[in-house]
Amino acid sequence: MNLNELLHVLPFYKTSTTIDGVEINAIEMDSREVKPGCVFVCISGFTVDGHDYIDDAVKQGAVAVIVEKQVEASVPVITVDDTNRALSVLASKFFNYPTSKLPLIGVTGTNGKTTVTYLLDEIFKQQTKKTGVIGTIQLKIGEDTYPISNTTPDALSLQRTFHKMLDEDVDQAIMEVSSHALDMGRVYGCDYDIAIFTNLSQDHLDYHSNLQDYLRAKSLLFAQLGNSYDEQGRKFAVLNADDEASDLLKRSTAQHVMTYGCHNQATVMAKGIQLGAAGTSFTLTSPVGDIEISSRLIGMFNVYNMLAASTAAIAANVPLTEIKTALEQIEGVNGRFEPVVEGQNYAVIVDYAHTPDSLENVLQTAREFAKNNVYVVVGCGGDRDRTKRPLMASIAVKYADHAIFTSDNPRTEDPQLILDDMTAGLGESSSYDVIIDRKTAISQAIGHATSDDIILIAGKGHETYQIIGHTKYDFDDREVARKAIRSKEK
Ligand SMILES: CC(=O)N[C@H]1[C@@H](OP(=O)(O)OP(=O)(O)OC[C@H]2O[C@@H](n3ccc(=O)[nH]c3=O)[C@H](O)[C@@H]2O)O[C@H](CO)[C@@H](O)[C@@H]1O[C@H](C)C(=O)N[C@@H](C)C(=O)N[C@H](CCC(=O)O)C(=O)O
Ligand SMILES: Nc1ncnc2c1ncn2[C@@H]1O[C@H](COP(=O)(O)OP(=O)(O)OP(=O)(O)O)[C@@H](O)[C@H]1O
Ligand SMILES: N[C@H](CCC[C@H](N)C(=O)O)C(=O)O
Ligand SMILES: [Mg+2]
């Protein structure tokens, strides 16, 4: 593509020299990815400054650089106000505005995003549609999966991914939209058709200065639905009527609003909810009719997830019968309330709860169905919100008969200090142990288990690694638990 033509989409920019005749074959934001013929966009990051890598990029063949600071370079320099924003716009244009052709659903909220995207995936597959799903676990295009390093990738990877989805005839894209991504503008170039809000509770206060700021970031998804109306392709905000944060989100969007809930009046509601240890049933009421749902998903929080997905599916004109079939078919989501079954007479559940609210939800659910003791094995991630640590520990001792505090992903923090933060506020009477090594902690909990106990191993869910320092070691809670169960049986 001609560089002038690419830049045409930017309202203002300055060039150090003429760029007439400069052709580019790619955009890159990481000097390590630069190949001959690309334009390198310099991002001022949290860790390093992309402007410091211009020489590397040029050596590797970048034919122009886009900057927001004053720099010297041997290739044409294009200066813009904000490279991050420019990157989103340029990436959209470079890939020919993929999301204007691809129906796109975005899901935001503290908990439940991955679950809701997987429910929607099942619903659209039921309609024989080919789906593309972007989120915490992986990128999925049809049946092909690819590893992903952020829940919501950077703007460039995103646009490239949507382009690939179109190339591979995807009919429906579904993505998790993290608050970080919204705040950093990773999704500026995305044209959403439906935006879903799950819920708001405390997380990420290492990044956002307070809960209000965190909610404000989430509200950007609803503002980005835009304010143009199209009777053919209506846009919808799907909000949780039982979460008061929805008020601000409703005011943030100019588009149609559909709500879901169990308590407050909502467009789509769950009535007559039956929560069981083997599954959940309820009547879904909606403007297009009512239908009985009987699902294998467990816990009240999953009723909300099913309502969120169903409401978006109704907005996308999916018939209720297909929603029902999909919800009844899904067995569970990787690493979310996932049982580890080796024929033992106690339950072992691996779950991704890593926030106070999600831990409370899963422990309450375990408590409801436990015929005997509930044990929880849990830690908190390093280099993440410190203020959630004591909250998670006090929830663990409140709901479990016995808590074992251990390491999650300590990252660059001292694991003992993370555990000290967790246990700092616990009283003498609380029943807990501290075992730094996660494998030992899991083995010990399983070693103590007797008939009908529930052991909840929380925090890492689908993760198949543990990050200590900067190194990722192989670690899978499910495998570790499986081995511990087997060696106990011997
Ligand atoms: C705090 C944060 O979000 N950081 C993100 C940010 O990293 P950063 O600002 O530190 O980047 P940097 O290393 O300073 O690099 C700046 C620029 O220099 C470039 N560079 C760098 C090195 C080099 O040799 N050459 C070079 O050109 C980089 O490509 C980049 O363009 O930009 C990176 C590239 O887009 C992201 O991968 C990275 O996410 C890190 C890994 C992260 O952990 N993010 C978490 C907090 C996050 O975003 N999580 C949410 C999910 C939360 C949830 O699900 O609850 C998510 O969406 O994943
Ligand atoms: N609607 C919900 N409300 C509260 N807790 C939930 C809800 N749905 C799931 N959870 C809990 O939160 C955990 C994470 O769920 P899920 O992965 O779906 O959320 P997420 O928003 O994608 O999380 P992340 O921000 O880490 O990507 C689950 O393992 C479960 O413990
Ligand atoms: N997306 C979340 C995942 C947390 C998972 C938990 N296992 C941890 O490492 O803290 C984050 O990056 O904060
Ligand atoms: Mg997720």
Brief overview, please?
Belongs to the MurCDEF family. MurE subfamily. With 490 residues, the protein is of the alpha/beta class.
CATH architecture of the largest domain: 3-Layer(aba) Sandwich
Question: Strand-residue fraction?
Answer: 15-25%
Rg over alpha carbons:
24 Å
**Helix count from the secondary structure assignment:** 15
Q: Number of folding domains?
A: 3
Low-confidence stretches: none
Shape: globular
- Coarse structural class: alpha/beta
CATH class placement of the largest domain: Alpha Beta
Query: Which molecules other than protein and nucleic acid are bound?
Result: ligand UAG, adenosine-5'-triphosphate, 2,6-diaminopimelic acid, magnesium ion
Average pLDDT metric: 95
| CATH level-four homologous superfamily name of the largest domain | Mur-like, catalytic domain
Binding site for ATP: 109-115
Pathway: Cell wall biogenesis; peptidoglycan biosynthesis
Keywords: ATP-binding, Cell cycle, Cell division, Cell shape, Cell wall biogenesis/degradation, Cytoplasm, Ligase, Magnesium, Nucleotide-binding, Peptidoglycan synthesis
Protein name: UDP-N-acetylmuramoyl-L-alanyl-D-glutamate--2,6-diaminopimelate ligase
